[in-house]
Amino acid sequence: MKKLATLLVLAIAITTASFASNGNGDKTTYNVDTKASKVYWTGKKVTGEHTGYLNLAGGEVFVEGKEVTGANLNMDVTSIEVTDLQGEWKDKLVGHLKSDDFFSAEKHPVANFKITSYNNDKVVGDLTIKGITNEVSFPAEVKVDGDVLTATGTATIDRTKWDIKYGSGKFFSDLGDNMIKDEFEIKFELKATASEGTTSSK
């Protein structure tokens, strides 16, 4: 009887271990679809706001089991666009945003966001703009459906932490209606697909 009980416990242990290692520890890399992904921005000033987007230059999202363990996203600063203006006014603003007053696109053509953790629908990571890195955190939603991963999230950041001081009331006085608010929004909309040969069990 004792021998039978021992065998039963052993069988249960083996079965449990088998289920635990089946899929729960899989590691998958999802490559960002640069055509289906965008980073939208909104900048506000005293008299209104401007909106636009920039393209992703590539990146990966790392998933273990069903949990996001990290990500590395590259943003093409040279692709910055304005969506609330047309013609000459749009061209002027795009040129200004690419200048050293704002994002220094020629000197720093790529911005980067590295996710260090994703828990309870909250993303924490390091955002690098103009070669300057600061930690940011914001709510986000990530969905994994087979080989496809989608993610959305909006961060509100203080641009002056990345040396974007143009029109800031913190650094310039008597701006009046020309003052630009320090905080602006960045909204990520990502789509990524699983890489072949990147899935493995622990």
Structural commentary:
Helix content is 15%, strand content 52%. By secondary structure, it is α+β, with helices and mostly antiparallel strands. The protein has one domain (26-194): Lipid/polyisoprenoid-binding, YceI-like (Lipocalin, Beta Barrel), CATH 2.40.128. Strands 1, 2, 3, 4, 5, 6, 7, 8 and 9 form a nine-stranded antiparallel beta sheet that branches. The longest helix is centred in the N-terminal third of the chain and has 19 residues, at 2-20. Mean pLDDT is 87; it is low at 2-23.
Determine the fraction of residues in helical runs and give it as a percent range: 10-25%
Overall mean pLDDT score? 87
CATH homologous superfamily - what is it? Answer: Lipid/polyisoprenoid-binding, YceI-like
What's the number of domains?
A: 1
What is the first-to-last residue Cα distance?
36 Å
**Rg estimate, integer Å:** 23 Å
Largest sheet: 9 strands, antiparallel
Q: Figure out the total of helices.
A: 2
Which shape, going by the Cα principal axes? Answer: elongated
| Uncertain residue segments | 2-23
